[in-house]
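Hypothesis: this fold can be encoded by more than one sequence.
Test: take the C-alpha cells below, design a sequence, compare later.
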C-alpha cells in the first residue's frame, strides 16, 4: 500500500523564544508538539511527516532532530543554518551527520532584501547542500519569483522545492502574474513544488473554489510527478482545520489516476527527500 506523507509540518515550543514571527495575538502562538499532531495524522491516515523549521536558528534544527529521535512518524527534518556564514559548509556537514536531516530552508520571506538569496557569500552553502545530498526548500513569495531562475541557473545541481506554491496572492485574486513566473520555474526539471499553503493565502472562510484555479495551475505546470503534498500544519489552522485541507487536496486531485495521486501524497516526498 502507498505511504501517505505530509511533507510540511511544524512543531514548535513557544518558550524556546526564537520564533520572531510569533506575536501574542496569533491564535497559533502556543505549543504544537507530536502529541498535538498525532490524532490528526492518525485520523487522516498519514504515515509519515517531514518537519520544517519555523525559526532561523540552529537551535531550532537541533530541537526538531531531538523530536525525531522519539517520534517515529517524523521521516525527515528540514532545518536551518546561517547560509551567509563563512563556516556554513562545515555547519551543514556537521548537521548532516544525522540521517534525519534531509534539507535546509532559509526564511526568505522574512528578509527585507528580495535579492538576498543571490548574494555571492551564499554560494559555498548552496554547493555544500548539493554535495551533501541535501535538499533545499525555497520559502519564496511572489516578489522572489522573477529572481529565482538566476539562482537555479547558478546552482543547477541544487534539488529545490518551492514551498506553498510561492504563496500566491489568492485573497487579492492575483493569478496571471504568479502563474507566468511559476511557468518559468516549472521549465527547470530539477525544481519541484509543494501542494500546500494555498488555504492560508485565501480570505477567511474562502471556499475550495477560491483556491481551485491555483491548484489547477500547479498541476498543469509541474504535473503530478513534481508536486509534493503538505499541510503547513498548524499554520493552515488560521483558515481551515487539518481534515478540511486534506479533503480539499484530495478533491482537487481526484481526477488523476491512482498512481498519480499516490505520487503527490507520498511517493514524490519519499523520492525528493530520500525518506526511509
Amino acid at each position: 500500500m502507498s505511504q501517505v506523507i505530509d511533507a510540511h509540518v511544524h512543531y514548535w515550543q513557544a518558550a524556546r523564544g526564537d520564533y520572531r514571527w510569533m506575536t501574542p495575538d496569533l491564535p497559533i502562538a502556543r505549543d504544537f508538539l507530536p502529541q498535538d499532531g498525532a490524532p490528526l495524522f492518525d485520523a487522516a491516515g498519514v504515515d509519515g511527516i517531514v518537519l520544517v523549521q519555523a525559526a532561523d536558528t540552529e537551535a531550532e534544527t537541533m530541537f526538531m532532530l531531538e523530536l525525531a529521535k522519539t517520534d517515529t512518524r517524523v521521516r525527515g527534518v528540514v532545518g536551518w543554518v546561517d547560509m551567509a556564514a563563512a563556516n556554513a559548509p562545515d555547519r551543514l556537514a556537521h548537521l548532516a551527520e544525522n540521517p534525519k536531516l534531509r534539507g535546509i530552508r532559509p526564511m526568505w520571506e522574512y528578509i527585507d532584501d528580495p535579492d538576498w538569496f543571490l548574494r555571492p557569500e551564499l554560494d559555498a552553502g548552496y554547493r555544500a547542500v548539493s554535495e551533501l545530498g541535501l535538499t533545499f526548500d525555497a520559502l519564496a513569495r511572489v516578489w522572489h519569483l522573477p529572481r529565482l531562475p538566476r539562482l537555479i541557473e547558478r546552482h543547477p545541481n541544487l534539488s529545490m522545492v518551492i514551498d506553498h506554491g510561492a504563496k500566491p496572492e489568492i485573497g487579492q485574486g492575483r493569478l496571471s502574474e504568479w502563474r507566468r513566473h511559476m511557468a518559468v520555474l516549472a521549465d527547470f526539471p530539477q525544481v519541484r513544488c509543494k501542494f500546500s499553503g494555498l488555504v492560508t493565502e485565501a480570505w477567511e472562510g474562502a471556499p475550495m473554489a477560491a483556491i481551485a484555479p491555483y491548484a489547477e495551475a500547479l498541476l498543469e505546470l509541474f504535473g503530478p510527478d513534481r508536486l509534493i503534498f503538505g499541510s503547513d500544519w498548524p499554520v493552515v489552522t488560521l483558515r481551515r482545520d487539518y481534515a478540511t485541507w486534506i479533503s480539499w487536496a484530495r478533491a482537487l486531485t481526484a481526477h488523476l489516476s491512482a498512481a498519480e495521486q499516490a505520487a503527490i501524497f507520498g511517493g514524490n516526498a519519499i523520492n525528493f527527500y530520500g525518506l526511509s
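Residues 205 and 222 are 28 Å apart (CA to CA). The two ends are 15 Å apart (CA to CA).
Hypothesis status: open.
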